[in-house]
Write the structure tokens for this entry.
Amino acid sequence: MSLTVEGLTIDHGAIRAINNVSFKVGQGQLTAIIGANGAGKTTLLRTLSGLKEAASGSATWNGSSILGVRAEDLARSGIMHVSDGKSVIAELSVKDNLALTGLWRKDKKDVAAATKEVVELFPILGQRMNQSAGSLSGGERQMLAIGRALIARPRLLLLDEPSLGLAPLIVEQIFQTIKSFVKSMDLTVVLVEQNAMGALKIADQGIVLNLGSVVLTDSAENLLNDPAVRSAYLGF
Amino acid sequence: MTQFITAVLTSLSSGAIYALMAIAIVLVWRSTRVINFAQAGQAVLTTYIGYTVIQRTGSFWLALVVAVISGAVIGAVIDRFFMRPIFKRVKSGPIVMIAPVVATLGLLGIIQAIIGFVWGITNQSIEAPVSTGGYKIMGTVIAFSSYNLLVLVFVAVAMLLLTLLFQRTNVGLALRASAYSPEIAKLSGIKVDSVRTLGWALAGAFGGLAGMLYIPGYFLYPNAMDLLLVLGFIAAVIGGLESLFGAFAGGMVLGFAIIFSTTYISPKLFFPTAFIVLIIVLLVKPAGLFAPKKSRGA
């Protein structure tokens, strides 16, 4: 099972947001897509999860096309998108937020088991079950959003800026947690980040996006260690 | 004293009917962000259907059931085959907010025209299933009957069932999630389009119930529910548009305000009271009395 994107072009109104982008993410691989604000990262993920239409190109998961498929159908087929920043329903309780991805699943025993695992992964959620999601801190919300996605037992996880607006210590914690469950659950992950350093540290592969085009694709290690790349694209 | 008791009881039964209509409006607003003006047409259509059932079978109760079910079906059909295509085609610009609402106004006209064509425009009447004669308190007949009591009981039961559905069932959770954040609901695998249609169906059922409970005190004609639509809309706005409890409370507030002002000051105050209450609420608490709590930060 792999994600293959070829010649993908996406328009955002009159603006070309993504131009002829191609990349491949192998089974069990974590790919970080990095780039400045406005590079088109979020637009790319929204297209892969069915929220946005592509202008041209193709994207296949496990051999079948995912372009033009409705977001809810992609979600049910194991592609979970955790959208940026505040991807929780503030008006609902933590418990209800977590329940959303279990509503349509037939195997209720496994939903219960998955929920238990998520609470073990993020113990703070267990303590906050009956609070409204709107009362959570930024870090807790991010944990809730990721936890909700994991309860669906996804195969492909699309993570949009999990570090957005979080304190450095929490960012570190979130990245480490992502790294650990990705390995233990054998998930394929596309992680979109402005925090290039943090993302590349846990990634296998890195893709640098600039103004809607891919400027570099390499192993995360090589990208991190290349001084030219660091100064030109990563800014550290 | 008798006048006061009568006023309280009548306020409750009037308020209950306004609340039903307000709930129908809120259900559609929450699921599709549309103020459904066609609700008046839908409710009057289902009441005509109920009227026909009574003509054929003589049973008010059977008519009530048929009206509620046909209300649900009509609501679902309108969303699936009329509203959804409009949402699909109208995607950007200021027209996005306006087009669906104008469409419901158009639909209201169409439904009322169809009713006129099928049943005619002369007044019909539906007889109440229980006595509409007022109860006697301390030797005085008051303006509150067994029928008014029945209305109260029905609205209370309907409210209870709706609350249980929303708070205690998976379908209710899907309805709430889709209302608060269609995008997150979709990304969680919830079929938001179907959930929206269900919202319209529930609203249609409540409209059907409202029509059958309201009309026995009045006449049935194509525009018979227009006034109730306006009052239901005001009650929904008073309650904050988002909340079912708010819609219920808004209906009650309106019922008490209207009945008390018409009883104690002047019968002419019926309409002015409704609007005065609305304006006061909008000035004091613009989001409505029961708007949901905002989240921390974001």
About this structure: The mean pLDDT of chain A is 92. The radius of gyration of chain A is 17 Å. Strands of chain A lie at 3-12, 15-25, 30-34, 56-61, 64-65, 79-82, 156-160, 188-193, 205-210, 213-219.
